[in-house]
Amino acid sequence: MGISSTCFIPLLFLSLIAGCAARPLYPLPSKLNIHKQPLQTSRPYNLAHRGSNGEFPEETAAAYMRAIEEGADFIETDILASKDGVLICHHDVFLDNTTNIADHKEFADRKRTYMVQGVNTTGFFVVDFTLEELKTLRAKQRYSFRDQQYNGKFPIITFEEYISIALDAQRVVGIYPEMKNPVFINQHVKWVDGKKFEDKFVDTLKKYGYKGAYMSKEWLKQPIFIQSFAPTSLVYISNKTDSPKIFLIDDVDILTEDTNQSYSEITSDAYLNYIKEYCVGIGPWKDTVVPVANNYSQTPTDLVARAHALDLQVHPYTYRNEHQFLHFNFLQDPYREYDYWINKIGVDGLFTDFPGSLHNYQELTSPVSKDNRASKLLHKIAVLISSNGKV
Amino acid sequence: MGISSTCFIPLLFLSLIAGCAARPLYPLPSKLDIHKQPLQTSRPYNLAHRGSNGEFPEETAAAYMRAIEEGADFIETDILASKDGVLICHHDVFLDDTTNIADHKEFADRKRTCMVQGVNTTGFFVVDFTLEELKTLRAKQRYSFRDQQYNGKFPIITFEEYISIALDAQRVVGIYPEMKNPVFINQHVKWADGKKFEDKFVDTLKKYGYKGAYMSKEWLKQPIFIQSFAPTSLVYISNKTDSPKIFLIDDVDILTEDTNQSYSEITSDPYLNYIKEYCVGIGPWKDTVVPVANNYSQMPTDLVARAHALDLQVHPYTYRNEHEFLHFNFLQDPYGEYDYWINKIGVDGLFTDFPGSLHNYQELTSPVSKDHRASKLLHKIAVLISSNGKV
Predict the structure, then answer these.
(1) Which ipTM value was assigned to this complex?
(2) Which pTM was predicted?
(3) Quick check: A149 contacting B, CB < 8 Å?
(4) pLDDT tens per residue, range A10-49
(5) Chain A closest CA to B388's CA: distance in Å?
(6) H-type alpha helices, chain B
């Protein structure tokens, strides 16, 4: 007897179930009854630069999870590509300073010299390793004066793994990925479908549902800023995604990687007027916003004022706690630096290696409250009482 | 005609006036209508260790004035003596690390080797220079990673100059002088009147009106703690002054300078019971209170608990902002260190090179208020509102 019609539908049903058994038809128990604390939008953003890399090696899962634990609003990363076109999180195009590549004798013959942004650089380049090979390496702390105890413990992670960390957090955490060295990547890595690095970047974001203009409902559910030093890459993706974009600006003597433009040109009013059609803000190197002489901050430039006049946010990089990075007028005190930049200069976000310290500072001086006005009134009353009548 | 009796009294009166003309018979205009803000006593003391020497060379007038400006409760100093018996403010018995003695070729032949606390030390010793000679030197910043711009600008100051700085402040500022290396000083310096270093120390305090037990009315007008590593010196002056005394405790492998006692002996319960008859507290090296391994804080010892049980205050030294001094668990954040020591360990005062940072932290987390209870209640209400019902 063959399969009769009376058996067909049950069999079809059974095979459907069998076919679906690998995929959950129910929400994960850990995700039931979750009301995620939303992104705070009442004070400048705490941007965990490469994760909490004051403590952990940069751009590792541990660094990102720690940053989330410490209260960062966004976790920041740099996206490059492996030899086989997988998008990975890594800042340098070479592996020498942040991984134990030197201990991997099997890769000794991969050392190369490439032109990177006009500079001949020798080392082991990410574009010469497949993802599988990169995954055998282990990250190390870049700065000798930071904790070395995690060296050799954590691997390089992919763009998708990074996104998963953000999406799995118990509160809403934004991502802040950079299209890093796109000219270099497109020179060295080719994708079979003919797509470019920027296309792959946007495809990944779409796969995980990132969309929506700044402050839209969808954006608030999955906040994101896309950043790049290369204006043409930002312009290129502008009609592929409406996610907000930030134009990064390097030091005064560096030209843009793709268009060879100078600092003075890309910070001119004319250029800012142009770029604001594509970007919601700029990310400048902080020592160009407030120049430095003899390790003392000088009079600020007008860059922030001009950007703000065009409704461009300003997210300078990078704030670090160590005295090697703090200018003397901050008296070796990172909180004084935050105070200056937030209250005197008035920036909209801060890239920091120490999101815990920044969060601590912000919680002490401008705690997020559901009812901001009542809280402010109470604070005024408290000040009144404590100063015995003097407001 | 001789001086008749009718002229005598006017003449006497005139000569009195003439004799007094050099001394003001009126209060200084700057001191009229001054209500000095009193010493805060509602939170642990901010003790400016050697002045604000994170910014200025240690123990200079500038360092002390800056510390007062930054909100320190007490300015701390180390008292040594010059060759001619003048009490001066200087930490090291030798001048090499903190002055430009090396540039003074006229003193080149004064280099010597002396035994200092059991260690043969070569250098230029303060006890070989008169005050006049010391005053030709200029202070320099001890740590290379701190601001060097004030090197060569400031002289060494005397005990009396230091006291004047404290008394002249616009608010009540306490002093915290140490009888430093008293065994060494008494070996090398003799006073004509047969008095010892400790006698001269107390004489100076009396000259400026320092007296009164801890928290007495006189003490609150001119707060002071006297400190020393040498218990016999503290005991010796105990019947000469009722000003509160603090017993300093060095590292676990250092013996007391005068009695050759070990750390475990002088931190034992019997010894603390003994010393509390003479002292109101102890000043331990912080890394013995909370031991350190691999640059991570370990489990605290019970020293603070045992001291507190005997009503002894604990003022550990020394809190510094730089990562060279911050243990890794504080994540390069000096405010994290303050938080731990104030809220977890519960110390009564903190010696810091950065009184400005400590003041900032304390003002943010426990502001001094005239009406402390109302302020706390308001704060609770604010927290209630901001957390939407959750206390």
Answers:
(1) 0.76
(2) 0.83
(3) yes
(4) 666 555 555 455 565 777 887 777 789 999 999 999 999 9
(5) 7
(6) 5-20, 61-70, 131-134, 159-167, 182-188, 197-207, 217-221, 231-236, 263-266, 269-275, 286-289, 303-309, 334-339, 355-365, 372-386
